[in-house]
TrEMBL record:
Residues 137-213 form the EamA domain. Its main location: membrane. Residues 423-432 have a biased composition (Basic and acidic residues). This is EamA domain-containing protein. Residues 404-432 are annotated as: Disordered. Keywords: Membrane, Transmembrane, Transmembrane helix. It comes from the Eukaryota.
Amino acid sequence: MSSGTITQSDWVKGIGFSILSSIIGGASKLAIRKSWRVEEACRNLTTGDFMLLVDTSHHTSVLLPEADESNIQCPAEKSDLETQSAPMYVAEEQQRLQTSVPLRSNEPRVSFRGLLCAPPVANAPLAQTREQMAHKRLYQAYSLRGMGTLGMTTLNPLTTVIAMNYASPSILAPFSGLTLVWIILFSPLVLEETPSVRQVIACAFILLGEVVVAAFGDHKNDDGVSIHDVVQSYYKTKFLMFCFGLLSWMVVLMFVIRNERSSPRLKRFAWGVAGGSVTGFQNFLKDALTVLKASSATSTKVVGIPIPPMLFFVLMAGAISAAVVGLLILIQCMKRYDATYSSAMFVGSFVVSASIMSAVHYDTFANLHGLLQYVLYPVGLILLLIGIVLLAVAAEPAPYEEGASVGGDEFHDSQHNTQSADNRSRDELRID
């Protein structure tokens, strides 16, 4: 495919829209990850034997004296006379909850998990409050996920399309790595997930590799490319081999994800790179824009509106399919792992996949000039791979189970400690 050199103004416009796309992508990924955290908190409100969350700003502390286990019996073990006094016992406990001393602002939240030994009571304000909190948080989770999905499916692709109208995928794809910068900067604030030193170093390698690829990659555009050239490019043997190889790679990754015998580390790697790998089919979007520009003068007009050829819609269908599949995989990855890891693996695998695609579909290496470009362009890709490997060989992740917490290893540890403390106080609170 013949091409023309990008002008300085086109290069600046393309980079500008690509940076805007990275900001939208970072905010969207943070919103999606946050939605899973909020949904998990909502699930904790509605599951278990019994859980009462004491909020330091809205609730009061629970001050109950230590109970003698030998004197505490369930209604089924009491005599008829004792059973008749159970409602009075429940009323007394509710009164003690309402009149207990408020928590100070510097006291932590307290959770209790206990056995239900009193008969059901018609008026259960604590249960109603818990349900109201759960519905409110669930609505917040769906709202955040909806905004994140809107950004990833509409706003981010829109800015990407505009950017690709000015520059080639080989130079624009690396700038998606700026998404990592926004995620690393705002994860502690938004998600309370502080990236580890290893993650920061790995992201630095990925960002450095992307800058090198952008600076010394292919700076050619598609001016002068005809529809016939676009069609013929899909019959290249090396491009067909790339498609077969990428599809085989995706099959292997899906097998690793679905196989119960796969190690947690291998599953985490597969989840991390699957979304970015399939999103590397950026040729569909770029070629659809090329067809649209090439057919603008000869396209059929309906009510004065030019209708592009069928090839445009076929290519757009491929572009949308690749983007949606990659997004769905990324959403599931962010449900299981922290935002820094998920985004870094997605961006790194995306840039590698898109770079290989550009090499076989747009003859990237044929458009390189000088020894410096021939050396540094592959070096940039190697730096990307180093960053991905550093993330992949991190500490062994905890096995993920459907319905488990999405808070990461530290959250799992804190949740385990909380449950242990709750088990020690199972008999301290017995209310409906």
